[in-house]
Write a structure and sequence with these properties.
transmembrane helix; globular; cell membrane; DMT family transporter; EamA_dom; membrane
Length: 295
């Protein structure tokens, strides 16, 4: 069970990192709010085709849990994505990456406050090592750069988005008894509906952009892989080992993003990349070894 969860979560983080790299290709090829809205539409349509036979049988459960399912989609699918898109227009990618690395701590805190779920010393140490590895990556191994960070409204927006996704992660414990296809259909449909107003505002303010061929390719990738396959894998990973333990894997995203940039964008590999990868993986390993029973 653990091995399956680890594979699913590592695969999820790789796809989410790929989404970040795809975002670089999206610039000038498709507008961000349109991309965010259409990617959830693609995921929802694919899931509707997959779940059409189960939908009728499970509709009563979906209807009874509609507020929860809608909230999960609004927070996890729309809230975090929109927050990230808006935040990086005000703050730096370095700031956003470091702030995203705090998500496991938010999950720890929420689980303790609301469910009295304890965190071991090993998990805290593992978290610290892991987040240090993220900082090594985004500062290029020069910790003095931390003193140059300029905090602004974008950082507050990013923290808000992180709190939304942390809440989504913790709230997955209340997932109703639905097949994964119908559950993900509900939350991705919610993601589409709650993203739609932002796309409308983007168009109304003349900031929308018709996708270029590259934009369509980015959209197809984002809709099928990070928005569908990765989300399903993440939900299953949380189900198998819990939110506290699964959340720590999110710190792999900036590491994998850097490695994918090296492979796909021709960026240079540096020794600090190797150090950071070892630290993040080592932190996750230590946290897993020291996780309390049932965490």
């Amino acid at each position: 069970m653990k091995r399956t969860a680890y594979l699913l979560l590592v695969f999820t983080m790789l796809l989410w990192a790929g989404n970040a790299v795809a975002g670089k290709f999206a610039v000038g090829n498709i507008s961000p709010m349109l991309l965010n809205t259409l990617r959830w539409l693609i995921a929802a349509v694919v899931l509707a085709l997959l779940a059409r036979k189960r939908l009728q049988n499970e509709w009563p459960v979906m209807k009874a849990n509609a507020p929860l399912l809608f909230g999960l989609g609004a927070a996890g699918m729309t809230g975090f994505g929109i927050s990230l898109y808006v935040a990086v227009t005000f703050t730096s990618v370095i700031n956003a990456s470091i702030e995203q690395a705090s998500m496991p701590l938010i999950v720890f805190a929420a689980n303790f406050l609301f469910f009295r779920m304890r965190v071991s010393a090993g998990q805290i140490i593992g978290f610290v090592i892991s987040i240090t590895g993220v900082i090594v990556t985004v500062t290029h191994g020069e910790f003095a750069r931390l003193g140059e960070l300029d905090l602004n409204i974008g950082d507050a927006i990013m923290v808000f988005g992180i709190m939304l996704y942390g809440s989504y992660t913790v709230a997955l414990r209340f997932r109703p008894a639905l097949h994964w296809q119908t559950f993900m259909l509900a939350v991705t449909a919610s993601g589409f509906l709650t993203s739609l107003p932002f796309a409308v505002i983007e168009a109304w303010t003349n900031h929308s952009m018709v996708p270029t061929p590259t934009g369509w390719a980015v959209l197809a990738f984002a809709g099928l892989f990070p928005s569908l396959i990765a989300q399903v894998s993440y939900v299953r990973g949380v189900e198998l080992i819990g939110a506290n333990r699964a959340g720590l894997f999110i710190n792999l995203v900036p590491i994998f993003g850097t490695l994918l940039s090296i492979v796909l964008l021709g960026e240079a590999f540096q020794p600090y990349h190797a150090v950071a990868l070892v630290m993040v993986l080592g932190g996750i390993y230590l946290a897993e070894r020291r996780a309390p029973a049932g965490a």
